TrEMBL record, chains A, B:
PANTHER family: GLYCOSYL HYDROLASE-RELATED (PTHR11051), GLYCOSYL TRANSFERASE (PTHR11051:SF13). Residues 180-201 are annotated as: Disordered. Residues 698-759 form the Glycoside hydrolase family 65 C-terminal domain. Residues 15-269 form the Glycoside hydrolase family 65 N-terminal domain. Belongs to the glycosyl hydrolase 65 family. The active site is at E495 (proton donor). GO terms for molecular function: carbohydrate binding; glycosyltransferase activity; hydrolase activity, hydrolyzing O-glycosyl compounds. Pfam families: Glyco_hydro_65C, Glyco_hydro_65m, Glyco_hydro_65N. Residues 331-689 form the Glycoside hydrolase family 65 central catalytic domain. GO terms for biological process: carbohydrate metabolic process. SUPFAM superfamilies: Galactose mutarotase-like, Six-hairpin glycosidases. This is Alpha,alpha-trehalose phosphorylase. Substrate binds at W365, D366, K601, Q602.
Length: 759, 759
């Protein structure tokens, strides 16, 4: 795929030819989405040519079905149900019969086949010239986009130019074969836990109900979710015959040489809803939406879409001069990040966005720690929606805490869609209680960056309080450690070390979580002295005590931060004797074999230090970086970006650059060999963080914006914008200097490398 | 069930009446077995009266089927298949039709219904008087036993005395309904992991093949095991009509008042075998066996059985004067222990013996640590067979070590039948690597007690070497602990504390395992200097270094032995706030909730100290006992006996007595409320250990037999025999004195409380 970048321009990904492997790979890369619906970049006639497809799914954020989890051996409190995203009817499908022949890429004679994803416009185009067996030619051009302006709408335009007269041309559209939906995915006998658990049940006929006007009502078997899909086909050309039944629209034309036929198609996907009785309303709304867009017409809807995309890039682009390949890779990442986020406060961002079914479509800590910063600093309203999703599942988090014998507070699920824990392996699931503090950290950052006190003093504070409460009960003051507050039997971010005591990252984040709750409770008491928030002075005192006495493991002899109490007592993994094909270790070694060694899947202590850069001396950070880098495999896609950012901040320029190049091009060059299952959305977020928080060193400390820029000497110039407390600031960074420009808002003082600058 | 003891005599368990609950409970207690086959104590007509039965299974030691284990989330090296004991055709079934009426206990008029299990003879009898609706009476008496002399044979005698003339009496026998076998078990929606995983597949018609002469060949679906079952019915009485087809024998008589009809039945169960081609041979052998027993006749076979049982009691009984209820309970335990042991070197003892399908019929460390001592000191040939079973699965143990990335050595499966790991939950499965040392400990003890050098220098040594090798690779010399040998990420016996570093029990046992291997390698080198055993001097040196530097965690401040590195850093479980119904904790709290507290399911450190009583000062043992007793729930049936034995040895007489009474009567009084699933064989072994190793303080130290008797003042006298180095010694213990008598063998010096005594 690498060629694709080098030959491309900084705004487009181009595919030329008909190599099935390339087209398959691009099914993921060419995915289009708007955070509500996402559709993979498969060919319109994939149903005829399965060899060109890995999975042609269309997905709806938050649409999943459940199945009971089967355990080899059950234990109390285990997650009870799989939640598995299931594809919805795929509205991309088209079948074309010209001159008596059905087109498919395998057996038809297609010349100049190419596809282009225009990142700037958010449009995927395809064109080719088809010669039938009788030697008659048809020029074909197809466009596709998923609208941000109408979240329900996917639009397609088909431009067909016959080169001869009087051949019959029949074009048919239908929703995908509903019963097998998702089942045509490449079957692999692969137990890789990172891939999706294939939902064994898809839709059955009972779950599908056709209404008039091409309206299909779908419902899940077990999770109680509903949605409606509608379909409209429009053409201004002379139609010889049109046959429409509920699932199929078929148009016949007679060709006139060089007279172009244009057909537009709008497929509308309603919001998902839970009460069947709402169906009629939902259908009415969807009909209205379809009427709007057909009346506006394809051109106008497309123009709106392009304008919205341009406005997105205006505020969110990172411009990198003199590096077209990297520039493209970077934009590709931002494009997909932007596509992945749920915007309705009821959905979030899954680990693969809406580009694939990997990880079952679950939401993880990835959102808050890797993807959230991008939105926070460029589109804070989306950041708020993402936090509102967490607020919407707070009741389930409280319930989960009760299951874990915690009487007060909340424990957010490690992986979930509907808020209930769906991780069937608790040592790398429920044990990762740091997710509570990760969410608290995102909330606090949101408050600092946006100044949105309305949220912070209510929903935000409620979450800070419930997560803080959790820590007090999970941990305890350990008399054997002079009363330090310890947190036992947890798993930190590094999943190659599980069920340990006092994971440094977890403890530090819990300390911050407590501090955040204390700060905002006190702020609320000042601002709303008469309104009780149900936190007693005694409770606050306990929080302060725990915060102050939080145990943070440190090895005085080695002068190193300890990942957990026992990390240095483990044997260092024998990297030299480990053949390359044995990575990732998790697929080739028993968990105990991994856990009993010093070996990290990903950044853990280094991440903790990166998040609070100013709390540690440069020497300390460097020592820890050097130590942990040696024992980290980066088997997680979340790892390299963090090491890269830290490298940048401790003066390891070469390493910073190398790590960055790996992360920036991870999916576009399929570094993890599993891009076909979907993009690595968290790593894409990591790319933005690497640029802005790594190389530019952006961070907020005590309400003030800091920068410590380190532009790699390989690059001419980097330009990006960030929003901060109602300002818009443009940063231009070269290896020798950095310029800050206030684009919108009031005067602001920032700190660059310890020195104040007023913009 | 308690009444049953108090009203009984010290040799018999008697059941009177027709209370379904009592009869159900006794299905377990009245089980009969010979280590090869076992049959639960259900009624002959249970197929007509399911309300009297929990499970009427007949089981064959080692006969199981496999199914793939389904995991919520897979990981490398996980156990791949369930191994589940499956019931074999049940040969107890009988149907009786008298005077036109079919007898069943629910609807028939049965007077004086009673059953007696004679422990001394190993025979279960049943009798009642049945009056039909027409008022005609039939006296019924049924006997049943499972032969030790003919391991294949289960025998029944039916003695039927009509009280009137000329009524038709039809008696039918068949093998149980084969397709539903085992499925009639009480259905409970109970995820308790301690219960058996119900094998979802039983026999299907393909797995059943009838041969001539009532010979049924059965095979498992997946595990590739075969067996043959044969059936013979014999009577000397006038038979009016006899109908025999392959699965059914039916005899008709006309009654003559007070003239007794006697029918004998022998059901023969072949050994299990793996090659289908052996079937004809196996059938021939089984026909021969059936011919032998039918020619000998029921009376003779029964007399042989009784004689064998008497000889067993002669050597294995523990007599306790003045306590008839306890005496009965004790004998009941020894009876079942004796019944449970596989004697063929290919099978072992399952956690429930052959009395139920609990724990899927798996073999655990229970054998070596709780049941083995009884056999070692009373029937060492059975002890040897049990060790030979481990030797037979050594290849699988080596393979398992490879899976765990251990290049040399063996790791025995935590739970298994065929030698492959079958534990689907590795934190309380594979992580309990102490099983390696447990087996080594049993081997070493066997060598000390029997002097069987032929075994020790070959099979025994090979196992000592392979287990020793394992420790060297799993653990390592920790520079951060001054080069001490540490063993990380294991679970000790206490399953309420999992995946810890340096579990005291594990480390001490590993140290001993190394010492055992070193001692016997050196012994072999002396005895067979020319025969290499494939252990280099370098390897031996490493073992010695690890043995010498084994890290044994100890808290100098508290003067307490640490169960593991982090045990004292955990919060003590809030026992006061834990309602009674929340025990056992494992059914009511998430594993993490349990693991992050100081709370023990069972003896762990205390067991380590009990096994090496002379390595610790009495004060140390008392401090540790006091500490760990407070945090132990005894949710495992393996716990109380160990605490009791230690109590006895540290002068806690009252506690020793109380713990003992709980363990001795555990099944007979259903203390754990799950006796219906089968007896707790390990606890039964614990009873023998409590008497002999607890109260009498028997142990071997440096080849010498030690005693430190502490007969509870509640008892008049305890008498038992032990075998030691080809001697038979009788010990008579009263609260004031102990007498040792050499019954067989050469003069021997023993040590009683530090003082030598020559017998």
């Amino acid at each position: 795929m690498h060629e694709l970048i080098e030959k491309g321009t900084p705004w487009t990904l181009k595919e030329v030819g008909t190599d099935p492997e390339v087209i398959k790979q691009n099914e993921t890369l060419f995915s289009l989405s708007n955070g509500h619906i996402g559709t993979r970049g498969s060919l319109e006639e994939t149903h005829l040519t399965p060899e060109f497809s890995h999975s042609k799914s269309t997905l709806m954020n938050g649409f999943f079905d459940t199945e009971p989890i089967t355990y080899g051996e059950w234990a109390y409190g285990y997650a009870t149900h799989h939640q598995t995203t299931i594809p919805i009817p795929d509205g991309k499908k088209m079948e074309m019969k010209y001159d008596g022949e059905v087109f498919d890429l395998t057996s038809s004679d297609a010349k100049d086949h190419n596809r282009t994803l225009d990142l700037k416009k958010g449009i995927l185009t395809r064109s080719y010239s088809w010669k039938t067996e009788n030697g008659h030619e048809l020029e074909v051009s197809i466009e596709r986009f998923v609208s941000y302006d109408y979240p329900e709408i996917m639009a397609q335009r088909f431009i067909l130019t016959p080169k001869d007269d009087n051949n019959s041309l029949e074009v048919s559209f239908e929703l995908d074969d509903l019963k097998s939906m998702g089942k045509e995915r490449d079957k692999e006998d692969d137990p890789d836990p990172r891939k999706k658990e294939q939902a064994s049940r898809r839709f059955e006929s009972d779950d599908l109900e056709f209404y008039d006007a091409d309206m299909l009502h779908i419902k899940t078997h077990a999770s109680g979710l509903h949605a409606v899909v509608g379909n409209r086909v429009v053409t201004d050309n002379d139609v010889h015959q049109q046959i429409s039944d509920k699932n199929r629209d078929s148009l016949s034309f007679y060709s006139k040489a060089n007279q172009t036929i244009v057909i537009d198609r709008f497929v509308a996907y309603s919001e998902l809803y839970k009460e069947e009785s709402l169906t009629e309303n939902i259908i009415d709304n969807l009909i209205r939406t379809l009427k709007n867009v057909t009346e506006s017409g394809y051109e106008k809807v497309k123009a709106e879409h392009i304008s919205t995309m341009e406005s997105f890039w205006e505020h969110s682009d990172i411009q990198i001069d003199g590096e077209p390949a990297l520039q493209l890779g970077l934009r590709f990442n931002l494009f997909h990040l932007h596509q992945a986020a749920g915007r309705d406060g009821k959905t979030n961002m899954s680990a693969k966005g809406l580009t694939g079914e990997g990880y079952e479509g679950h939401y993880f800590w990835d959102t808050e720690m890797y993807m959230f910063p991008f939105f926070l600093y460029t589109q804070p309203e989306i950041a708020r929606s993402l936090l509102m999703y967490r607020y919407s599942i707070l009741p389930q988090a409280k319930e989960r805490a009760r299951t874990m014998a915690i009487a007060n507070g909340a424990l957010f699920a490690w992986r979930t869609i509907n808020g209930e824990e769906a991780s069937p392996y608790y040592p790398a699931g429920t044990a990762q209680i740091h997710i509570n503090a990760d969410i608290a950290h995102a909330i606090y950052s949101y408050g600092e960056v946006t100044g949105d006190d309305a949220f912070m003093l209510n929903e935000g504070l409620e979450m800070l309080v419930e997560t803080a409460r959790f820590w007090l009960e999970w941990g305890h003051f350990d008399d054997n450690r002079g009363g330090a507050f310890v947190i036992n039997d947890v798993t930190g971010p590094d999943e190659y070390t599980a069920i340990v005591n006092n994971n440094y990252y977890t403890n530090l984040m819990a300390k911050k979580n407590l501090a955040y709750a204390i700060e905002w409770i006190e702020k609320r008491r000042r601002q709303l002295p008469d309104e009780d928030f149900n936190v007693s002075q005694d409770e606050l005192t306990e929080w302060k005590k725990a915060e102050e006495h939080m145990y943070l493991p440190y090895d005085e002899d080695k002068q190193l931060t300890m990942q957990d109490d026992s990390f240095f007592h483990k044997k260092v993994w024998d990297f030299e004797q480990t053949p390359k094909e044995n990575y990732p270790l998790l697929l080739n070694y028993h968990p105990l074999t991994i856990y009993k060694h010093q070996v990290c899947k990903q950044a853990d202590t280094v991440l903790a230090q990166f998040l609070f850069l100013d709390d540690f001396s440069k020497e300390q950070k460097k020592r820890d970086f050097d130590y942990y880098e040696k024992v980290t495999t980066h088997d997680s896609s979340l790892s390299r970006s963090v090491f890269g950012m830290m490298a940048s901040q401790i003066g390891e320029e070469k390493k910073a650059y190398d790590y960055f190049m790996d992360t920036a091009l991870m999916d576009i060059s399929d570094l993890q060999s599993n891009t076909k299952d979907g993009v690595h959305a968290a790593n894409m977020g990591g790319t933005w963080m690497s640029m802005v928080q790594g190389f530019a060193g952006l961070r907020v400390d005590k309400g003030t914006l800091h920068f410590s820029p380190q532009c790699p000497s390989e690059w001419e110039r980097i330009v990006f914008k960030v929003r901060f407390q109602k300002r818009l600031i443009q940063v231009s960074m070269t290896p020798s200097s950095t310029d800050y420009q206030l684009v919108e808002g009031d005067q602001l003082t920032i700190i660059e490398n310890g020195e104040k600058k007023t913009l």
